[in-house]
């Protein structure tokens, strides 16, 4: 497997925020978002054997594993192998929505689909067919938003389009912007499909620190 890093920490976002989690950060990304905070993942990473990473997960005692990147679905085969190897652990797969998610949607895995809005300059790469695959009560659609009127319109359009699928939608303010605006907007929507998310790890540790 080609990895950037792997380590034990706390899940910083999604439905399992705060849980002791083992992070497996895969190398490379197929996108170049305008505000990317993970450019250190763009390289080809270091090779590590499946056995070594499986052993590290087991030794960590964590009940949760997060497969992230870069873009973990550039390594779909490795992701499936890990998820299947640990049927008693739960996996969060953090992906952008630009690659088919279905192959990694197993019983013990959840998708956090970090959908790219127009300001990322990558929205044209998103696979619309992924919306119909997201499972209610198991997967999450996430938007990182600057809270502008344009983005509010964009988010509401997607919410309307995907309402029939019923999955939860998480709103996360762009790091460094005032979260109050986003939180107040969410409250004003009175829509229980939405939830608010601040990146826990960036609140606890330095926002530029890796391996957290
Ligand atoms: S998908 Fe994530 S890692 Fe890739 S360019 Fe966008 S923000 Fe960066």
Characterise the protein shown here.
This protein has 212 residues and is α/β, with parallel strands linked by helices. 24% of the residues lie in helices and 24% in strands. It is built from 5 helices and 9 strands. The protein is globular. It has one domain: TIM Barrel. The protein has a 9-stranded mixed beta sheet, with helices on one face.
Key traits:
nine-stranded mixed sheet, alpha/beta, TIM Barrel, 24% strand, 24% helix, globular, 212 residues, binds iron/sulfur cluster
CA(first)-CA(last) distance: 21 Å
Mean pLDDT: 95
Please count the helical segments: 5
Strand tally: 9
Name the CATH superfamily classification.
Aldolase class I
Structural class: alpha/beta
Give the secondary structure arrangement, pairings included.
Elements: E1 2-10, E2 20-26, E3 46-47, H1 50-60, E4 64-68, H2 76-85, E5 90-95, E6 109-115, E7 140-145, H3 149-162, E8 168-173, H4 179-189, E9 194-196, H5 200-204
Parallel strand pairs: 2-4, 4-5, 5-6, 6-7, 7-8, 8-9
Antiparallel strand pairs: 1-2, 1-3
This protein binds iron/sulfur cluster.
Give a short summary of the structure.
The protein has 212 residues and is of the alpha/beta class.
């Amino acid at each position: 497997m080609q990895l950037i890093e792997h380590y034990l920490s706390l899940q910083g976002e999604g439905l399992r925020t705060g849980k002791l989690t083992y992070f497996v950060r895969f190398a490379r990304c197929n996108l170049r978002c305008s505000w990317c905070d993970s450019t250190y993942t763009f390289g080809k990473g270091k090779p590590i054997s499946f056995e070594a990473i499986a052993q590290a997960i087991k030794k960590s005692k964590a009940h949760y594993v997060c497969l992230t990147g870069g873009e973990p679905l550039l390594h779909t085969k490795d992701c499936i192998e890990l998820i299947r190897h640990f049927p008693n652990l739960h996996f969060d797969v953090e992906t952008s929505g630009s690659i088919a998610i279905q192959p990694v949607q197993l019983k013990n895995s959840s998708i956090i689909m970090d959908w790219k809005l127009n300001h990322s300059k990558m929205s044209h790469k998103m696979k619309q067919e992924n919306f119909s695959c997201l499972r209610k009560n198991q997967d999450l659609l996430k938007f990182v938003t600057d809270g502008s009127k344009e983005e509010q319109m964009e988010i509401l359009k997607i919410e309307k389009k995907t309402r029939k699928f019923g999955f939860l939608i998480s709103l996360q303010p762009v790091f460094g912007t005032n979260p109050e605006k986003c939180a107040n907007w969410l409250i004003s929507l009175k829509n229980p499909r939405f939830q608010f998310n601040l990146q826990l790890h960036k609140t606890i540790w330095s926002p530029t620190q890796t391996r957290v």
